[in-house]
Amino acid sequence: MSKRDYYEILEVSKNASAEEIKKAYRKKAIQFHPDKNPGNKEAEEKFKEAAEAYEVLSNQEKRKRYDQFGHAGVGGAAGGGFGGGGMSMDDIFSHFGDIFGGGFGGFGGFGGFGSSGSQRVNKGSNLRVKVKLTLQEIANGVEKKIKVKKYVSCQHCNGTGADKGSAYSDCSTCRGTGQVTRISNTILGQMQTRSTCPTCHGEGRIITHKCAQCNGEGLLRQDEIVTINIPAGVEEGMQLSVSGKGNAARRGGINGDLLVLIQEEQHPELIRDGSDLIYNLTMSIPDAILGAPVEIPTVEGRVKVKIEPGTQPGKILRLKGKGLPEVNGYHRGDLLVRINVFIPKDISREDAKMVEKLKESEAFLPGQGDEQSFFSRMKNMF
Ligand SMILES: [Zn+2]
Ligand SMILES: [Zn+2]
Question: Which of 32, 100, 111, 219 has the most CB atoms within 10 Å of its CB?
Fold first, then answer.
């Protein structure tokens, strides 16, 4: 599927200003917002498409690359944030939630907010980051420092949103109760619904003088370095939740969480299978017959292992405890060395003669009893 032009998606010209792009995105986001189009897949796609276009065009660096190289310039993981436009709804809300206006918390993402719970504590939205780990980091656990852009409590007003010396006044919409009651007529008779007051967001009072730094929100967007301790044994696709390290909430609520999505970097030689590791060892025919010392890669470096004479292809050597630890257990997996024997396809006439010679020895005939007798015959040979 070829991607549409980002400018076309947002319906702006190639030389649109940042402000124009923001406005255009806002318009699209509101038009296709899932709250307005429940269950409408097409609107959801459009909503995502617009977010992806905005993600690129709102970033000077990415926009420049896009202008120069098109989608190829910003595709894949190059952008850092999202892989190739695979933005989830949650991603969109956590990154661009503020653009929908009307303050924060209006659209808090799916599921969590929006329902008319009568008493709700303001909670900041969750942040999501991806962390790529090597097998070695997974084996030992690792401390990662990650820069995240997030909402932090405004230091100027201590997160209250009120200017110094400002007074509050009772909210006139809800008369200070923080809730509004609506009575509607339905087939079942009159229904009373209570919801959070839209004017004061349930606080019951409004600020007479807003803090100029944060425009009364009590929040500022800032970069923060977050230290994440990743335990040993984590796996691709696991999500760690670092409590309280997400976005701060408006005016003194509790912080959201930082959700860390684990990604595994593929090891050049070792294959992971749960807490076990697999290494495919290919030996030459003579080495398999005569035995040989070999080097096996492990997460702690290479180890020397002696391969016994007469080792069969398909045999699995188990190096106990050389695998990975389990994320919340005491068990440590093993390293399984799967032995394969290399059978050459193209050999010279001379080599063929050498192999022919093997035929003369009874020892090379299959079906000559069990391994035991095979070994004893081997010993007699040398
Ligand atoms: Zn402030
Ligand atoms: Zn109110």
Answer: 219
Angle of CA points 49, 50, 53, to nearest 5°: 90
Q: How far apart are CA 180 and CA 291, in angstroms?
A: 83
pLDDT value of residue 86? 55
pTM: 0.55
Question: Cβ(138)–Cβ(232) under 8 Å?
Answer: yes
197 has binding-site annotation: yes
Between the CA of 205 and the centroid of ligand 2 the distance, in Å, is: 6
What is the 215 CA–ligand 1 centroid distance (Å)?
A: 7
For residue range 157-184, list pLDDT tens digits in order. Answer: 888 888 877 778 889 999 989 888 888 7
Contact (Cβ atoms closer than 8 angstroms) between residue 134 and residue 61: no
- Which helix (H) or strand (E) segment is 179 a member of? strand 179-186
| 366, 358 Cβ separation under 8 angstroms | no
**Can you name the residues that pair with 143 across neighbouring β-strands?**
229
CA–CA separation, 15 vs 7, rounded Å? 9
Q: Which residues contact 244 (CB under 8 A, 6 or more apart)?
A: 254, 255, 256, 257
CB proximity list for 317: less than 8 A, separation 6 or greater: 305, 307, 336, 337, 339
**Residue 177 CB contacts under 8 Å (≥ 6 apart), including other chains:** 197, 204
What would the mean pLDDT of 42-47 be, rounded to a whole number? 88
The token pair that represents 178 in the structure block: 């923080």
Q: What average pLDDT does range 84-89 have in this prediction? A: 57
Can you list the alpha helix ranges (DSSP code H) found in the chain? 6-10, 18-31, 41-57, 60-69, 71-74, 89-96, 135-140, 285-290, 349-360, 371-381
Q: Mind giving me the DSSP string for 276-303?
A: EEEEEEEE-HHHHHH-EEEEEEETTEEE
80 annotated ligand binder:
no
Is residue 200 marked as binding? yes
Task: Locate 13 and state its tokens.
Answer: 């010209």
CATH numbers and ranges of domains, the chain: 1-121 (1.10.287.110), 123-153+220-265 (2.60.260.20), 266-343 (2.60.260.20), 350-382 (no CATH)
Residue 296: per-residue pLDDT: 96
- Contact, 195 vs 179, CB < 8 A? yes
